[in-house]
UniProtKB/TrEMBL annotation:
Catalytic residues, chain numbering: C78, H169, E171
Coiled-coil ranges per UniProt: none
Keyword Ligase: no
Matching Gene3D superfamilies: 3.40.50.880
Family from the record: Belongs to the glutaminase PdxT/SNO family.
Record keyword Lyase present: yes
Gene name in the database record: pdxT
Keyword annotations of the record: Glutamine amidotransferase, Hydrolase, Lyase, Pyridoxal phosphate
Pfam families reported for this sequence: SNO
Protein name: Pyridoxal 5'-phosphate synthase subunit PdxT
UniProt cross-references to PANTHER family, sorted A to Z: PYRIDOXAL 5'-PHOSPHATE SYNTHASE SUBUNIT SNO (PTHR31559), PYRIDOXAL 5'-PHOSPHATE SYNTHASE SUBUNIT SNO1-RELATED (PTHR31559:SF0)
Length: 194
């Protein structure tokens, strides 16, 4: 099983390390053609405006929408979650506009630019270590979206079918259970298509 990490900007290598801990193979994806080689895709944290701009420039918007349309799983972390969202709070236009959520960028305020904590994630037995860096929040979810994690009543992890999104950086700790959760989604999809 192969999982790609969109490698236009942001935290790519750390995601590949976490993917490989699950036993799957991790591949950086720099060109649209490389999407054919993977069964699932991670869109990493970084800067969502930059990632969105580069995705447009290199043809990734259409290609990733098609990838999702085939039922292949996509996991957006931090800026990657913003890129996945249908709506961004404020005037900003969305990027992939795939997941039925509204996100607010940099939602934790300056004094809390970065922090770590343990969070309960529905479907994972013990709390997961989460690193937040200028993180977004999910302000609203559509009817098909399942909320997986709350941090102080705010939604920070959610799933809609083959789409998974979290506000924090699961790749910056040794805790790879959220990557394992995603790898299980990818494996289930492969099994369903056999
Ligand atoms: N760590 C991150 O990915 C930060 C996201 C960034 N603040 C943005 O809005 O795109």
């Amino acid at each position: 099983m192969r999982i790609g990490v969109l490698a236009l900007q942001g935290a790519v290598t750390e995601h590949i390390v976490s993917i490989e801990k699950t036993g799957a193979q991790g591949l950086p994806i720099k060109r649209v053609e490389e999407l054919d080689r993977v069964d699932g895709l991670i869109i990493p944290g970084g800067e969502s405006t930059t990632i969105g701009k580069l995705m447009r420039k290199y043809g990734f918007i259409e290609a990733v929408r098609e990838f999702a349309g085939q039922g292949k799983p996509i996991f957006g972390t931090c800026a990657g979650m913003i890129v996945l969202a249908k709506r961004i709070a404020g005037d900003e236009a969305g990027h992939l506009e795939l997941m039925d959520i509204t996100v607010a960028r940099n939602a934790f305020g300056r004094q809390r630019e970065s922090f770590e904590c343990d969070l309960e994630v529905k479907g994972i037995a013990e709390p997961v270590r989460a690193v937040f860096i200028r993180a977004p929040l999910i302000e609203e979810v559509g009817p098909d979206v399942e909320v997986l994690t709350l941090y102080k009543d705010e939604i920070v992890t959610a799933r809609q079918g083959n789409l998974l999104a979290c506000s924090f950086h699961p790749e910056l700790t040794d805790d790879y259970r959220l990557h394992q959760y995603f790898a299980d989604m990818v494996e289930d999809r492969i099994a369903a298509n056999l």
